[in-house]
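Handout, page 2. Input:
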Amino acid sequence: MRYWIILISLALLACEPSSDETAKTATYEETIQAHRQKTDSLFREPGASPLPSMEVIAGFSGLSYFPIDSTYRLRVPWKRVRDATPFVMPTTGDHENQYVLFGSAFITLSGRQDTLHIYQNLDLVEEGRLEESLFIPFRDATTGQSTYGGGRYLDVPIPDSDTMEIDFNLAYNPYCVYNYSYSCPIPPPENTLSMAVKAGEKMIEIPQP
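Output:
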């Protein structure tokens, strides 16, 4: 997960000026662009990059994204799920983590209503990592077309009210897109959206060793 990069971006977004809508939009776009630049920088950094080899890192020209679109930045109602049974979310490899259904968010996008289920990684919480982070793996109508066929991810902080922000401009690909050695959670079937989410990361072909 790229939670810490995204958390910084969300904190900056929360500090936007509210008196000037034009300035607010510019600040939002600049913040998303800065987030993308940080991600690209991470991918170019040996030892931190998920890319499979130094040769691939040297030839890396940046990730592919949809244009920044604030209509995909949503403030939505959500409901906490209590006492859900932990489960192992299937992955693309052998590594497995325990998750729990934390809640459900109710979104309206492109005139359609849908539900996104929100999960918490119990293994990371037990390790003392990302205790305040929630995980939203999802598929949508772009999956397998302009975006990765296995779906994409969002990381969000635990909300402190009955609404939460879901910003699909921050949607990102699993690391197994870039390096087949990674074991990545597969979005549960119930997190398949009927609409096309034309925001966030697009599919990119990375040569494998």
